[in-house]
Specification:
Blueprint (H helix, E strand, L loop, with lengths): L4 H7 L6 E4 L3 E5 L7 E7 L14 H17 L5 E4 L15 E5 L9
Antiparallel strand pairs: 1-2, 2-3, 3-5, 4-5
The structure holds adenosine monophosphate (AMP) and zinc ion (ZN).
Length: 112
């Protein structure tokens, strides 16, 4: 999508601190980190939010989680929180699905 900032990050049109990339996924540091380690994992395919996922997108969304686990495993990070916000009311600000990886501090439950 031409006006999506995360599509522009994938295309290299907006700079990012890349931590991982393969054929289907891209991961980079969050610009406004909420934990010492805060990474966003996104599918290269533009899907606006998890509720917009279509039948054929399921593998991409499932792969977000296995990609996050791989990234953490490669960095020997054992304790982490994975978050997807769906919709503005839940805190979604960028409408290209992204999985937050948060680590490096203690977390509270329930989240705010
Ligand atoms: P959400 O609120 O779940 O939609 O998360 C969007 C996240 O994208 C926020 O944590 C932002 O800090 C992050 N973000 C927005 N623009 C950029 C950018 N250009 N580079 C890296 N992270 C970004
Ligand atoms: Zn996009």
């Amino acid at each position: 999508m031409s006006d999506c900032i995360f599509c522009k990050i994938i295309a290299g049109e907006i700079p990012s601190e890349k931590v991982y990339e393969d054929r289907d996924y891209f991961a980079f540091s969050d610009i406004n980190p909420q934990a010492p380690y805060h990474i966003l994992v996104i599918p290269k395919k533009h899907i606006s939010k998890i509720a917009e996922m279509e039948e054929g997108d399921k593998e991409f969304v499932g792969g977000l989680f296995s990609t996050a686990v791989k990234i953490c495993s490669d960095k020997a990070i054992t304790d982490y929180r994975l978050v997807i916000n769906n919709g503005e009311g839940a805190g979604q600000a960028v409408f290209h699905i992204h999985l937050h990886i948060l680590a490096g501090r203690d977390f509270e439950w329930p989240p705010g």
